[in-house]
Amino acid sequence: GWCPLSPAGVQTTQLLVEPPWVPVVLRDRVTLTCQGSGTDGAATWYRDGQPWGQKGRKHFIVTETGTYTCYRANTGLSLPVTVTD
């Protein structure tokens, strides 16, 4: 029997950027939000590949340039977002 493959079960962590335009520039007062499906567990944040001090927070206003990612236990690591000066 033929069985179609569906990505419907795939859940990922998303790093949402506000305002939503590119490039992401520090002076735009950028807010990053770590969004994942399932349980609303705490986010672990990384800046330039290193654990970063916003642990547990779902969102925050960026005050430093760098490349940010976030991790949630239920959905994994987000794609990176780079904030420039």
Automatic annotation (TrEMBL):
Family matches, as InterPro entries: Ig-like_dom, Ig-like_dom_sf, Ig-like_fold
Family annotation (PROSITE patterns): IG_LIKE
Domain Ig-like: 7-84
Protein name per the record: FCGR2 protein
